[in-house]
Task: inverse folding
């Protein structure tokens, strides 16, 4: 690999910038592609979008020979609003699945290192935390507090972002009230439909760990399907 390309790839990885390393198999010529940024469009840039989305390397036949496209995506992220009981197993499961997990809760007695060892904890109010964390297409957001003062600002920020998954804990009645508040805040039905509420797959989950399983399953389905 060209030393300049390698140095830039290391820089991109450190900056958590999605990039595709494209190598022409006939002669080993390589270049970096940034499908999420403005650059000259080409057939190679177009197919690199699909490679990043699938998170899987591919060999693509092109007009000038076969190319090997290797995606380098930033880590998946899970932003959990509410350091409640469900958040504890959910954070551990998500970390095991390869997510960078952040738990957001201004209540320091809930969001403590004792309850969430080795997890990034943010004690800001959710709107401030979400603005700083800037959810992107590799981010899932889950709200768990049942408290509109905490959940609603996070959901509004998530709906204004390209997050690939948004989920909110609560009964159907709670979600109906949530939808009404979001409509009052100016969100359209098509936007609100992005929220999985009640959160998680319907598997009859009862315990916090079982509910966490249902949430991670739904997040995985949204990511991979």
Result:
């Amino acid at each position: 690999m060209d030393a300049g390309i390698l140095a830039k790839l290391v820089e991109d990885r450190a900056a958590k910038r999605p990039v595709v390393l494209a190598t022409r198999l006939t002669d080993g010529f390589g270049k970096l592609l940034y499908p999420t940024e403005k650059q000259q469009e080409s057939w190679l840039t177009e197919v690199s979008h699909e490679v990043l989305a699938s998170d899987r390397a591919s060999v693509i036949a092109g007009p000038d020979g076969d190319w090997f496209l290797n995606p380098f995506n930033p880590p998946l992220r899970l932003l959990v609003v509410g350091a409640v009981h469900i958040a504890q197993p959910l954070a551990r499961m998500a970390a095991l699945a390869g997510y960078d997990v952040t738990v957001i809760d201004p209540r320091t007695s809930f969001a403590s290192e004792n309850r969430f060892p080795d997890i990034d904890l943010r004690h800001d109010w959710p709107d401030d935390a979400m603005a700083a964390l800037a959810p992107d297409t590799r981010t899932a957001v889950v709200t768990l507090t049942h408290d509109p003062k905490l959940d609603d600002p996070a959901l509004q920020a998530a709906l204004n972002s390209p997050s690939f998954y948004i989920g909110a804990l609560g009964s159907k009645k709670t979600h109906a009230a949530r939808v009404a508040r979001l409509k009052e805040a100016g969100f359209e039905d098509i936007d609100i439909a992005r929220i999985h509420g009640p959160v998680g797959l319907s598997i009859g989950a009862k315990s916090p760990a079982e509910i966490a399983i249902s949430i991670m399953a739904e997040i995985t389905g949204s990511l991979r399907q």
